[in-house]
Amino acid sequence: MENGLWEVLGSKGLLKKHEFIRILVQCLYSLGFKNSASCLEIESNISCKSADYESLEKRVLSGDWDSCVAVLDRIFDHSKDDTRNTAVYLVFKQCLLEYLKRGDVSLALNVLRKQAPMLRMGKEKIHRLACDIVYSKEMESGEVDSCLVQGLRKKLLVELEKLIPLPIVIPKRRLEHLVETAVMDQIDSCLYHNSWDAVSLYKDHCCGRDQIPSETVQILMAHKNEVWFVQFSNSGKYLATASSDCTAIIWKVLDDSKVELKHTLESHQNPVSFVSWSPDDTKLLTCGNAEVLKLWDVDTGVLRHTFGNNNTGFTVSSCAWFPDSTRLVCGSSDPERGIVMWDTDGNEIKAWRGTRIPKVVDLAVTPDGESMITVFSDKEIRILNLETKVERVIPEEQPITSLSISGDGKFFIVNLSCQEIHLWDLAGEWKLPLKFSGHRQSKYVIRSCFGGLDSSFIASGSEDSQVYIWNLKNAKPLEVLSGHSMTVNCVSWNPKNPRMLASASDDQTIRIWGPGKPNKPEN
Amino acid sequence: MGRLFVIDLEGLVYSCKHCQTHFAVTNDIISKSFHCKHGRAYLFDNVVNVTVGEKEHRVMLTGWHTVADIFCVSCGSLVGWKYEIAYDKSQKYKEGKFIIERFKVLGPDGGGYDMNHDEPMTGSDEE
């Protein structure tokens, strides 16, 4: 047939024309265009269903079991391998079921005695087959209903389809699947990709810098000294900042993403270097490396509690909440003070103390409350499972200055004073971390965070006054944001708005960053 | 934590005279026989919490070297210098190592140092 059906398509000649047309037909049928589909079948002389399959389908739906098996044998090329046997077994099962439901017990027995041996099944398998049927759900309902029987036959057909080899049967929605695979590959290599909207099929997908925060949209000036810490609340509706002016400030994020001051929290006598939002965002903890831990009410801005004995002034470098928003844990910057778990009323629940506990540089609790990660000043990361009490130690070679957990709690990053950011998995399957570099860090504590869609980005502060953004796929920065005039100490990506980023700097300001201008002009 | 990242050392520590920031441990001393204009100086294998300044060429008693001054990361006081390059083969062992002037630090017992009460200098000299 000089139809060129054995031609190849595509610039590299990798696609078979007749296969291409067949999946087109399948696609038209699955979209509901029956007329167009059968027109195409006629015009191209390629049908969606192969001849063998049509034959099988006819026999199954009419209950012609013997011919069914014959067709199956033909399909499987008369081999007696396991797939063929499973297929024939299913046919027999249906056949017996129907006979028994009709009350044709003798016919059923006949089948079992004579036909079953064809399947090469041992006696016990035959017994099991009989048991399977007798006890099956379908046997319970009494009526012999032709609708029910047709339904069962259609189900059998679906089961058989799973066993029949290509190309007699092709997977459902094959064309859709192929296109989606291509699109997913494009998304995979798209470094700026930051939203789950559907992509256009008209051109190869590639996002530009308008997808991630890269331009300053607002500068917040309220602190009277260096701003050391910034973090969005879990809901993304508030922002908290901490400064060496000994205050912390709670800001509100308005609907248009503008930020305005809500409360200034004054009580600390020393610089505040760390804050932590309770999981329900109703409470805020503040502390500093030479300063005690304080608990505030977010709504009113009122100080609820100061932790630790007022005489001894238990200084806390870092703290974290448990998912119930009532229990919290903090690590001390005094050596030997250790790690203490409190409840919001100030009662001590548990403590890890002792002379062997060095100064706590940073700590965090996973969102599910199961594990606590601690960074001690001796370059070790310790992950303690609070249920099983099992501890895992990850040794780093250089001093670690800060720690940050991803939103899903599966990964964490640490900033090292050798100017690298290391990404580790919490499950402990990785032998080596993923490393990111490009920023500047040598003297100061610089913090980084996860952000964007599915935490696929990392942002970090830097001693060269810029904000650095990486896509997790690349060790080198994707974007470098300029604007601050002094060291950027800390960054926070809004967990509910993948296009909003905040940065805190020694220049006493906080900058809010938003989507940039696209890098190519629109067509 | 808290802006300036300061590393704490364990054991017998030499620390800054002005702000007690830790610099090095006695285990890392390679030689105690070095000298500077303020008296004794020690050669250390490893030093922390210092910032390294600009590289310069200097003539020492033992010849030409490229060195960089080191400063306390907390208070900024000059603490000593780092040997970057030694141009004499016999002096190569000093490359990458640090000199801390004894006058600028507190010893492991917290004691200072006074050049005038020191013993007369003998042995391998420097600077």
From TrEMBL, chain A:
SUPFAM superfamilies: WD40 repeat-like
WD repeats: 220-261, 265-306, 454-480, 481-513
Any one GO CC term of the record: cytoplasm
Subcellular location: Cytoplasm
InterPro entries the UniProt entry points to: CTLH_C, LisH, WD40/YVTN_repeat-like_dom_sf, WD40_PAC1, WD40_repeat_CS, WD40_repeat_dom_sf, WD40_rpt, WD_repeat-ST_regulator
Alphabetically ordered keywords of this record: Cytoplasm, Repeat, WD repeat
Main location group: cytoplasm
Annotated CTLH domain residues: 49-107
Subunit note: Interacts with RANBPM.
Protein name: Transducin family protein
UniProt organism field: Arabidopsis lyrata subsp. lyrata (Lyre-leaved rock-cress)
From TrEMBL, chain B:
GO molecular function, one term: metal ion binding
Alphabetical list of InterPro entries matching this protein: Yippee, Yippee/Mis18/Cereblon, Yippee_fam
Keyword Zinc carried by entry: yes
UniProt keyword terms in alphabetical order: Metal-binding, Zinc
Annotated ranges, domain Yippee: 12-109
Pfam family, one: Yippee-Mis18
Similarity field: Belongs to the yippee family.
Protein name (database record): Protein yippee-like
Organism, as annotated: Arabidopsis lyrata subsp. lyrata
